[in-house]
Write a structure and sequence with these properties.
The complex is a heterodimer of chains A (about 220) and B (about 170). By secondary structure, chain A is of the alpha+beta class. Chain A has seven helices and eight strands; from the N terminus they run ααααααβββββββαβ. In chain A, the strands form two sheets. In chain A, strands 2-3-4-7-6-5 form a six-stranded antiparallel beta sheet, sandwiched between helices. In chain A, strands 1-8 form a two-stranded antiparallel ribbon. In chain A, α1 (about 5-15) runs parallel beside α3 (about 35-55). Chain B is mainly alpha-helical and about 170 residues long. In chain B, about 65% of the residues lie in helices and about 0% in strands. Chain B contains seven helices and no strands. In chain B, α6 (about 135-145) crosses α7. The radius of gyration of chain B is 17 Å and the shape is globular. Mean pLDDT of chain B is about 85; it is low at about 1-5. The chains are: A alpha+beta (about 220), B mainly alpha (about 170). Chains A and B meet through α1, α3, α4, α6 and β2 of A and α1, α2, α4, α5 and α7 of B.
Chain lengths: ~220, ~170
């Protein structure tokens, strides 16, 4: 254990942001089992916090009252959004599994499946830069968002293919030991190891998007 | 999704962006206000303001923090405009809100109640980090605090919740 970095400092840093490991904290954790356990506990707590904060939104909307003319267009937009978003599908059961979290996130942003316009390279670059990921692909990406996922920002992409839209999440900090297939209802996905991280690829048409997964795997750099 | 450089397409892309992020705005407003009706008012005002100011958002990757900032401002403005009373922790109406219930997971419900009972100075940065995905540096800017101050508040927030989760609290200089 380092003499200059105490357990108290380590726990303050972990308690402040359990997902980020600075050099001093990493060095400390390498020799301190108690702080390593503290971090594991805090990460588990954070997964529960995330589930707790993702409240079911059914019943949250209220009817929009009459409004001044200047606001009508904007209010109409918000009403439309409310209708589109709808209620009742927000209660996500907590699961420690990475695949479960991917599925939950994709359902959470279900509107992403409806995107059709191909993004320009500069638009995609903005999202990748925010998430700290490099990615070269000629595939038509129609949706890109740097989403909060397990305490980090990760690129959430949707690729348009001949078989329909395919979701890709580039998980630079989520290591998996090998290929893992997962499914729920019509969703079929795979998690693939990619260097120190992984790539999640998910489709809704009942087929595992192998070709997209292979292409993504060859294109991503952490 | 990133805004497109064309009139109606820009509007539809922006509407879709709001549509995608709205659920988290409602949740954030709820955790901030601890009141369902206030949260709905805040999000409605936020969407109106965001729509009017959509040209200011140059990079859609920054949409989430940008919208969360608007939610915070609208929340503060609502209290100022309507002169809403500040709510005592023991009288938080949201403690009885059905949204806190969970299907057979009593621990999750307890955790939700515990989050609601955190003081504002701990609850707000925690929700910004866990739900909003903001980094401690971004939270520091948002709350006009130093980064060490943010880390301390987040540490204390989690420390209070550890006991609800069945863990021993860490030593604190509180």
């Amino acid at each position: 254990m380092s003499n200059t970095y105490t357990c108290r400092e380590a726990r303050l840093e972990i308690g402040g942001d359990p997902h980020t490991l600075g050099p001093a904290l990493s060095e400390h954790l390498a020799t301190c089992a108690a702080c390593t356990r503290f971090r594991s506990e805090t990460l588990a707590l954070d997964a529960r916090l995330r589930s707790a904060m993702e409240l079911p939104l059914a019943g949250f909307r209220k009817p929009v009252q009459s409004a001044p003319p200047a606001r009508r267009f904007a209010l109409a937009a918000s009403v439309l959004l409310g209708i589109l978003v709808g209620g009742g599908f927000w209660l996500l059961k907590p699961t420690p599994a990475l695949a479960g979290d991917v599925l939950a996130h994709v359902k959470h942003e279900s509107a992403s499946w409806d995107a059709h316009e191909v993004l320009t390279p500069s638009e995609l670059a903005g999202v990748l830069k925010t998430a700290g990921v490099q990615f070269d692909s000629s595939m038509p990406i129609v949706y890109a968002m740097a989403c909060p996922f397990r305490g980090r920002r990760v690129p959430h992409l949707v690729v348009q293919t001949a078989d329909g839209p395919v979701t890709v999440m580039l998980l630079a900090h989520e290591k998996v030991s090998g290929r893992q297939e997962f499914s729920e209802g019509a969703y079929r996905g795979i998690l693939l190891p990619a260097g120190e991280g992984s790539v999640a690829v998910l489709a809704r048409d009942g087929k595992i998007p192998e070709a997209v997964a292979a292409k993504m795997l060859s294109d991503v750099r952490w | 999704m990133n805004p497109r450089p064309r009139g109606t397409t820009v509007s539809s892309a922006f509407a879709r962006l709001l549509e995608t992020l709205r659920p988290d705005l409602v949740r954030f407003a709820f955790w901030l206000a601890r009141d369902r009706a206030v949260a709905e008012d805040v999000v409605q005002e936020t969407l109106i303001r965001a729509w009017k100011s959509r040209d200011e958002l140059k990079d859609s990757a920054a949409a989430r923090p940008w919208l969360l900032t608007i939610v915070r401002r609208e929340h503060a403005r609502l209290y100022e405009r309507k002169r809403l009373p500040t709510v005592d922790v023991d009288q938080v109406e949201a403690l009885g809100d059905p949204a806190l219930a969970s299907d057979g997971d009593a621990g999750l419900e307890d955790l939700r109640r515990a989050i609601l009972q955190l003081p504002d100075e701990y609850r707000e940065p925690l929700v910004l980090q866990v739900l909003g995905g903001l980094s401690t540096a971004e939270i520091a800017v948002e709350l006009k605090l130093t980064q060490p101050a943010v880390l301390t508040r987040l540490f204390r927030a989690r420390n209070r919740l550890r006991t609800i989760y069945g863990l021993d609290p860490a030593e604190d200089a509180e």
